[in-house]
Amino acid sequence: MILIGLGSNMTGPWGSPRDCVGRALAALDEHPLKLCKASTLIETTPFGRKDQPSYINAVARIETSLRALHLLQVLRDIERSAGRERRERWGERTLDLDILDYNGVIVEDGVEQSTDAELVLPHPAIAEREFVLAPIAEIAPRWKHPITGLTAKAMLAVLDTGHGGNVIGGGPVS
């Protein structure tokens, strides 16, 4: 199962954060990607840097024949199309796309690299982020973390939600 995290909190060429996440979901259903299922869009408090607008987040389950590193490059191309500029960690962004899990593959830090991207799988911060775990629990309730073996629901049950990224509302994809 391939899981992609989506987030936006800044208006850009693709419109509002909600519009941007909606367009990104559509882009995840263009060859060679196939969108299988998408979570409800949720509004969340910022994770990391707190002095910025709330985020619109979602998780998508996709299929593709692309290898993980090539998929990451395709996701970076989609981000650039949406106006993403990588300037500041945890800063405002028009679009953020992360590979959360790629068919249970485990890639240690620095093993898979290209000139503009480093890939670590599964995403190292899944267990710390309600805005990732809640949508995974919604669309893939039987998914288990490739390293810990825990479901998203089990990880949510022990999550300390005081660090940002808390779910504050939800709604359908526009």
Report on this model:
The chain is of the alpha+beta class. Helices cover 24% and strands 29% of the residues. The strands form two sheets. Strands 1, 2, 3, 4, 5 and 8 form a six-stranded antiparallel β-sheet that branches. It is globular and about 40 Å long. The two termini are 25 Å apart. The model has no long low-confidence stretch (mean pLDDT 88).
The strand count comes to: 8
Number of helices: 4
Helix/strand/pairing category: alpha+beta
Shape: globular
Helix-strand string? EHEEEHEEEHHE
Kindly provide the name of the CATH class. Answer: Alpha Beta
- Find the CATH superfamily: 7,8-Dihydro-6-hydroxymethylpterin-pyrophosphokinase HPPK
Distance between the termini: 25 Å
- Provide the CATH topology: Alpha-Beta Plaits
User: What is the arithmetic mean of pLDDT?
Assistant: 88
Tally of domains: 1
Beta strand %: 25-35%
CATH architectural arrangement? 2-Layer Sandwich
Percent of residues in helices: 10-25%
User: Stretches where pLDDT falls below 50 for ≥5 residues?
Assistant: none
Largest β sheet strand count, sense and barrel closure:
6 strands, antiparallel
Rounded to the nearest angstrom, the radius of gyration is 15 Å
